[in-house]
Amino acid sequence: MTDVETTTGFGFHRPTAGTSADTSAHTSADTSAGAADMAELDEQVTLADDAEFDLTTDEAAARVEQTLAALEAELVGLGSVKRRVREIASLLQVDRARRQFGLTSSRPTLHMSFAGGPGTGKTTVALRMAAILHALGYIRAPRVHTVTRDDLVGQFIGHTAPKTKEAIARAAGGVLFIDEAYYLFRPENERDYGQEVIEILLTEMENERGDLVVIFAGYPDRMAIFFSANPGLSSRVPHHIEFEDYSHGELVQIADLMVASENFRFDNEARAAFSEYLTRRMEQPRFSNARSVRNAVERSRLRQARRLVELRRPLRKDDLVTLTAEDIYGSSLFVGDAKP
Ligand SMILES: Nc1ncnc2c1ncn2[C@@H]1O[C@H](COP(=O)(O)OP(=O)(O)O)[C@@H](O)[C@H]1O
Ligand SMILES: [Mg+2]
User: Fold this and answer.
1) pLDDT tens digits for 253-283?
2) Which of 22, 123, 163, 252 has the fewest CB atoms lying closer than 10 Å?
3) Domain extent for 45
4) pLDDT for res 44
5) For the chain, how many structural domains are there in total?
6) Mean pLDDT value of segment 155-160
């Protein structure tokens, strides 16, 4: 008898005692499996009561850690969102470990609500969430199928159910992301077909064996009204994540990150100009957080391109990379200003 442990690809350690019959070839097959889906997990040999399952060496857990690290690195701010995503990931990692020991419990309910203004990162985080759910085997593909009311509700009697079912079928095995979900609910019109959509979704969301995760997204205040008016739905959505508007400082950081990821940079005057731009833009109607930043950066690139072409001289790498104050002050928000 030896106290050496075999580490399988899935990170569980089995004592290599005489009873090696159950440490079959199964383990090497598991090692090469890119993603363990639920069915696969269910078929696995149950670990002995005194075995160990090590999350720190588990492959799926490692993929989750990678996704969480990318979320940290690529998204500015969003502290509480990142914490909640981490919490959900932990819950699932432990659920998965429990399954290895044959500890059955119901599949965790994973439907979620992402409440926040436009451009606060809801779609981006949904993609990351899908990667996590996939790595842990709760969905078959790390896919997000985004829909709005028009994709679900038909114009005429009898058209809604097939439309909704088609959307669900497309999303099956992944995430169905319902943007501005509250438009499904029109209390002023009790014959509205949106109600039918909600009922079909409810049935689908209750299905224990199903592998569809639904994320409802939209403005916080309207989401709250939507859920309180639909208690049946609300009780099946245990995870509510709030996305706050970004501060001015966070938006400047987001701009820097976006610019750098496209191999551009602001020179010092340009960064000051962009900061001033944001101060003004935040006061304007339809300000959409990071989305407005992305649009503004894209327009600065257009102005930079025009400026460079008009230089009519050979360009250096530095020219091509740099966004200058001129590229920012060209915005209509500065029209009429006496600017350099
Ligand atoms: N915290 C952040 N850091 C960096 N970029 C962000 C952040 N939040 C959002 N973005 C970027 O802003 C844009 C809009 O984000 P998105 O996820 O579509 O927002 P929403 O779905 O809430 O409207 C995307 O290009 C996204 O990459
Ligand atoms: Mg979105």
Assistant:
1) 999 999 999 999 999 999 999 999 999 999 9
2) 22
3) 5-16+24-58
4) 62
5) 3
6) 92
Residue 111 Cα, ligand 1 centroid: separation in angstroms? Answer: 21
Same domain, 188 and 65: yes
Q: Are residues 228 and 320 part of one domain?
A: no
One domain for residues 190 and 81 = yes
Model confidence over 230-251: pLDDT tens digits? Answer: 999 999 999 999 999 999 999 9
User: What atom in ligand 1 is closest to the CA of residue 288?
Assistant: 23
User: Which has the closest alpha carbon to 61: 102, 108, 84, 95?
Assistant: 95
Residues 152 and 52 grouped into a single domain? no
Choose the final residue of a domain: 243, 259, 280: 243
- Say yes or no: 227 and 317 in one domain: no
Residue 340 lies in a domain: no
Whose CA is closest to 110, among 205, 220, 184, 182? Answer: 205
95 and 229 assigned to the same domain: yes
123-157 pLDDT tens trace: 999 999 999 999 999 999 999 999 999 999 999 99
Q: Answer yes or no: are the C-beta atoms of 264 and 301 closer than 8 Å.
A: yes
**Among 254, 291, 295, which is best to mutate for testing ligand 1, by the most ligand atoms less than 8 A from CB?**
291
pTM value? 0.84
Residue 24 contacts residue 45 (beta carbons within 8 Å): yes
| Mutation pick for ligand 1 pocket among 112, 124, 252, 287 (CB with most ligand atoms within 8 Å) | 124
Q: Which ligand is nearest to the CA of 181?
A: 2
